Amino acid sequence: MTRFPPEPNGWIHIGHAKAMFLDFGLSEMKGGKCYMRFDDTNPAKEKDEFIEGIKKDVHWMGFDWWKITHTSDYFDTLYQFAIRLIKEGLAYVCHQTKQEISEGREKHTPSPWRDRPVEESLREFELMKCGYYAPSEATLRLKMDITSPNPNMYDQVAYRIIYNTHPRTHDQWCIYPTYDYSHCVIDSIKHITHSLCTLEFENRRESYYWVLDALKIYKPVVWEFSRLNLTHTVMSKRRLQALVFGHLVDGWDDPRMPTVAGLRRRGFTASAIRNFVKGLGFTRNVTTMIPYHRLEFIQSQELDETASRAFCVLDPIKITISNFSEADGADITTAFLFPKAQDKGIRKMNLTKVIYIDRDDFREIPDTKFQRLTKTNPVGLKYANIKIKVTQVIKKDDVVVELVCEKINDDTPVKFIHWVSEDSPVVEVRLYEHLFKSEDPMSVEGDWRDDLNE
Ligand code: ATP
Ligand code: MG
């Protein structure tokens, strides 16, 4: 029994694809089941829109859950467990501010409320639940181990007050369990056998088991694996949120985003993303940056076999073939849909007197390595079986706008270039570069957003 536990505070990204591959994949491999769990414990940040988006993207990735659970389905249970912890002297209501708590953590000093009587904490917790306090005035804390070198053992907050309306429980509660308190409890009561998470949770293992030991309930196995980081992008949801909410991209599904929806719009397929994460392996190695081009390479390997080819000219130069005859025009040429698998079909191409080639395939002043079309060097037109040589270069404002060429018949070996005929359809082509200029935008000096590739 495993679970995939996204927090519905954004759309899922390719890092989640790695986690999904493990959560869904491992249970499938072992004949088990995988829950989809929405950790919806912070109504200030979470939205139903994200839940729907995540479900759609998980399915698109080709994964399926056994059942969906929401942490909010268990708010009652979590609350009853909290009462039990207070009664056993293992939790207390604390009135320290956030800053006082972090100072205490640094100095290993206890909260002045740590040893208040059980009855008092029970009453105060009830007041928290009834809406008596402002958000910063009270929390429920676990009586862990303030002397521990592990900061997560410093009396974690189990409940805090939030007055936002929750997407599912609406205004029923104004106290919400924290991730740390609820995650392990839900793992336990849903009988998760293997709770898989990323390495940054490793030092929370101790507190995870502390809660389950304190409640005397079943303890799953916890395994950590390394996070996926890709070059030229950011992966943390907090940063992706900053890009979306700051209108620095056109939304979560902007094709430059590393989100599943963004990658989909960019043209990536689910199978390529899955093959990519599969190839990463699942280790505990210190996180390295995986080059973005590795993802592109896996995608192009797949497209090589699945996407039929067509010629397209992005930045055209017009070519007029001066000695073109009607007879040449009648000569419709055939091109292979898959050059490496020629039995998979052909397409017809119409050779016309006027054609277009890519500006890149012509040089007025070539360097010695350039082997395509120049004023002295002829080229062949791929699939059309003719060779052309330049007879006149027509320019406007110093820019080459047209080449007049001549069909030639000789045996000189030439390079073949792609071309399109005059009657080809006009298409819209969207070209994307990396979202960030640097491989690791977080390591550049100043604000990481300044590294955005405008
Ligand atoms: P983020 O830092 O992006 O907000 P998160 O851990 O808060 O990530 P969640 O939605 O809570 O995001 O995570 C759901 C699951 O996906 C968790 O098990 C988490 O460990 C995993 N996950 C998140 N980011 C990555 C990543 N970059 N690589 C691998 N797994 C990840
Ligand atoms: Mg999280």
Description:
- The mean pLDDT is 94.
- β16 and β17 form a beta hairpin.
- The strands form 6 sheets. A 7-stranded mixed β-sheet has the order 19-16-17-18-12-15-20, with no helix packed on it. The protein has a 4-stranded antiparallel β-sheet with strand order 4-5-6-7.
- The protein has 454 residues and is α/β, with parallel strands linked by helices.
- The protein contains 12 helices and 20 strands.
- It is 30% helix and 19% strand.
- The chain has helices at residues 14-29, 48-60, 75-87, 98-107, 118-130, 179-189, 205-215, 237-245, 260-266, 270-280, 292-306, 326-330, and strands spanning 2-4, 34-38, 68-70, 91-94, 139-142, 157-161, 175-177, 194-198, 221-225, 229-230, 289-290, 316-321, 333-336, 346-349, 354-358, 379-381, 386-396, 399-408, 416-417, 420-421.
- The chain is elongated.
- α1 (14-29) crosses α10, α6 packs across α7 and α10 packs across α11 (292-306).
- The structure holds adenosine-5'-triphosphate and magnesium ion.
- Adenosine-5'-triphosphate binds next to α1, β8 and α8.
